[in-house]
């Protein structure tokens, strides 16, 4: 059984290693795959985007464990969600929502309340170790999800930023900046194509205008901006052989306009 990990733990401390140790202590046959541990601490939107961009590339039956949990120790719930193809385990704070909404069917949602599966003593600040890790380990051993708690009807949804479509303008925002400095927007390729059709367009970011979609990062002159549909399927603003984050002094949330001309 494959278990993926997506956390904001970083790699400096022992958190990731300890979570893996707990899982392997219960199920030594588990195959653990790291999606990322570089999420900005507590950044639910960033984690939700990376999960939704990643989960479907794993074999059916994979357990996706997400620990980005600024509400750890509070009244927030911990949940397991079984879909047609996968299991998702994490805090019920919205981080799972975009992936669950992209899946074909949610079959069952369990609020994790059965303390028989917790490590003892249970820390109020490290549920990743004491609750989530043992739960996914036992789940990977074939335990039925109903054993872990009680059913609930829904999960917490997330106000994920969507592009705004006008008559001649499409407004998007930068929602993610990767380590290469590429600026990923919330404009999916299909939305862009439907909006533009066969018309000419200008993509505006700050004081720069881009009037075509590139097929590679080398389609523009060196150190010049370009627009491309990246691996997430969303519109990206990039710099040929450079760093768009630095070039534009960009940050997440900055507006990107597509205008018909």
Fold and architecture overview:
The protein is α+β, with helices and mostly antiparallel strands and 261 residues long. The protein has helices at 15-26, 44-52, 97-102, 127-140, 189-196, 244-248, and strands spanning 2-7, 31-36, 63-67, 78-83, 87-91, 106-112, 149-151, 164-165, 169-177, 183-188, 201-205, 208-210, 213-214, 225-229, 234-239, 255-260. Helix 1 runs parallel beside helix 4 (127-140). The chain is elongated, with a radius of gyration of 20 Å. The relative contact order is 0.13.
List the helices and strands and how they pair.
Layout lengths: L1 E6 L7 H12 L4 E6 L7 H9 L10 E5 L10 E6 L3 E5 L5 H6 L3 E7 L14 H14 L8 E3 L12 E2 L3 E9 L5 E6 H8 L4 E5 L2 E3 L2 E2 L10 E5 L4 E6 L4 H5 L6 E6 L1
Parallel strand pairs: 1-2, 1-3, 3-5, 13-14
Antiparallel strand pairs: 4-5, 4-6, 6-7, 8-9, 9-10, 9-16, 10-15, 11-12, 11-16, 14-15
Helix pairs in contact: 1-4
Q: Descriptors for this entry?
A:
21% helix; alpha+beta; 7-stranded mixed sheet; Elongation Factor Tu (Ef-tu), domain 3; 2 domains; 261 residues; 9-stranded mixed sheet; Rossmann fold; elongated; single chain; 16 strands
